[in-house]
Specification:
Length: 280
């Protein structure tokens, strides 16, 4: 065997090994849960309760309940927020974001999915869908929230959980930030040298779902997002059923609350004002 042939064989075996790893470990490569909480709501001046929610398969989930301040008058006053974070973070990384939403007048349920933060279990697509529904049911059944007064705010991968939830429930509306079309599109950008579309089993398919969500939606996307380019957000906009608004901002991926600036705050305030008028 020539040296060149041997090198080609080794490269081929290496490529095959990487492809097999991708095929067998997709959940672990896409969902990257963090267990340690970097901060708690009290670190940013928020009162909270630790909440235990049990998923349908018995997995115990950890969440935070942030009550509304007395006399809250922001655009979220009168609404309850269900907050869904992204794939490689946990609630401890989102306390500033929770402060942002709370300052708008919302009371908030913020969920860590299975495998994330203090929640039990291992992250899987089906499991995370079940966790999100369990959080919704807790809001309605335990807190007595009315669906018409619940807003879902989701970031990145959390958008996929929100759109799946929206197929079976009807909230007042959803704020969907940095959403992608489907897992295959994200993986194809991340691993362009692998035939991921033929191997991937994850769905997380927002593109097939947004056209079936008939409640108000605010799609938010940064023109500077390098992880999920705005072209994917625009595809969601084209597929979305009305009523839907698309808000472009600047800043990094899924951090509109810290980098979206006045354009984000103004656009969100206008959307919340219209939402309040539509459900009053």
């Amino acid at each position: 065997m020539s040296v060149a042939l041997a090198i080609l064989l080794l490269l081929g075996l290496g490529y095959l090994a990487v492809a097999l790893v991708f095929a067998s470990r997709q959940d672990g490569m896409f969902f990257q849960p963090k267990q340690i909480l970097a901060a708690e709501p009290g670190d940013v001046g928020l009162q909270h309760e630790d909440v235990a929610i049990t998923a349908p398969d018995g997995v115990r989930l950890h969440a935070w309940w942030l009550p509304r301040d007395d006399g809250a008058t922001g655009g979220g006053a009168g609404f309850t927020l269900l907050f869904l974070h992204g794939a490689n973070t946990n609630l401890g990384d989102r306390v500033d974001t929770l402060r942002f939403w709370h300052d708008l007048g919302f009371e908030i349920l913020a969920l860590d999915y299975r495998g994330y933060g203090r929640s039990e279990g291992r992250a899987t697509e089906i499991g995370l869908y079940a966790d999100t529904r369990a959080a919704w049911d807790w809001l309605i059944d335990e807190r007595g929230a009315h669906p018409s007064r619940v807003v879902v705010a989701a970031e990145s991968m959390g958008v996929s959980l929100a759109t799946e939830l929206g197929l079976t429930v009807k909230p007042a509306g959803m704020v969907l930030e940095a959403g992608f079309t489907c897992a295959a599109d994200v993986a194809a950008r991340r691993y362009p040298w692998l035939p991921v579309r033929q191997m991937i089993r994850l769905g997380l398919n927002n593109e097939n779902r947004v056209g079936r969500l008939r409640f108000p939606k605010l799609l938010v996307h940064s023109v500077e997002d390098r992880l999920v380019p705005i072209t994917l957000g625009r595809r969601l906009e084209r597929r979305a059923a009305p009523p839907c608004r698309f808000l472009t901002i600047r800043g990094g991926h899924a951090i509109a609350c810290s980098e979206g600036g006045e354009r984000y705050r103004r656009g969100l305030a206008e959307w919340l004002e219209a939402l309040a008028g539509s459900v009053s």
